[in-house]
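User: Here's a chain of 423 residues. Predict its fold as tokens.
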Amino acid sequence: MEGTAPGAAPRFVVTGEISCIYKRHGRTRKVHNLILLPSLEAAEELSVRLEAIGNIHSDGRPILGLDSRDLLELTLETCPEAEFIPAHIWTPHFAMFGAFSGFDTVEECFGDLADQIHGVETGLSSDPPMNWRVSALDRLSLLSHSDAHSPSRLGREADLLDTGLSYPELVQAIRTGEGLLGTLEFFPEEGKYHLDGHRNCGVCLTPAETAALGGVCPVCGKKLTIGVEHRVEELADRPAGFRPEGAKPYECLAPLPEVIAASTGVSAAGKNTQALYEQMLHALGPEFSILREVPVEDIARCCRETDTPLIVDASQSAGCLPLDCGCYMLGKIWTGPMCRYFRQAVLPLDPALEQALAQEEVVLERRVCPLCGRSFVPKRRQLYCSPACQAEANRRKSRARMRNKRAKDGFRCYDLSPQKPCK
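Assistant: Prediction complete.
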């Protein structure tokens, strides 16, 4: 087809995501579920049945007041070949294991149909090692998908398959694990819900810190959002680091535009980053190939030709492209100087630094917020601990300016008496 990239025609699977919001055992449950279907005809038939229950046209992810167990039953009645997968199972607000509206087990969520669940989607904020700590998930395939909220985000997570390009073979891999080689993962530390906290308050806490604060935000005093790591700790029956027999391998990758941006000091969404990104795809191939397979010498040559100081390291076994600059995670989400990216991708390149950090604690500069008095680790020239404190400080300054202006101009009297009507 004219105007399309060369190569074989793209393949796709008919899928949909449905948000189920319902009452169960006196609590409101909110669970997102994925449905894979073998054909457009099957999707049309399922849509007709769901349309009798609620409005499926108002959103790309329809919201139905239907129990997840009942949705699974209806789906299998309509199309026995369908595959039903609980989506991003640890997300706090809309997931099977969500801290605020989920369940503690697959059986509790799906009841007598729990054996029809063959795989779960781990989500951006968790990775396989976190899920390996829950023995109840051993029988299920751990899957990593990318939804299409933004086309540029496709591929942040993916499944590695060694199967034919057909729906029956795909479903067989999910149900049995045969042909499912592993997954490509986002760094969970960068996920929106990995740790506890309040985004607007700039608060990010470990489970232990949340417990010490009684689950209350130190900035606004409201209940904290319980993150994925905390929820995994609650349901885990194994220690951290446990790897079950037969566990699939995985790799963590940083998206190539963000690698370019971090190494050049510009925005990941900027024109220069996008131009280099497109040039690298044209010269070196798909993004996954660049991040996982293309020799570093070829990447460096491509970057030299564009006069871009992109510096990468040859150690791709860490699952990402280490940068000759500050830690990729720093400034995005605070996980400490020994975050997993830093440990896997940076420290192996500098044994002396690794030994020094293992022997002595790294002490970071801290500041005291002039508004609330809270101690925090600043990002560059950050003055306040959170956007909430920053906004309150701006409001106070604005009120002070207006008071000074009124005092300087003096009070003026205006005739506000009603005007005489026109004749």
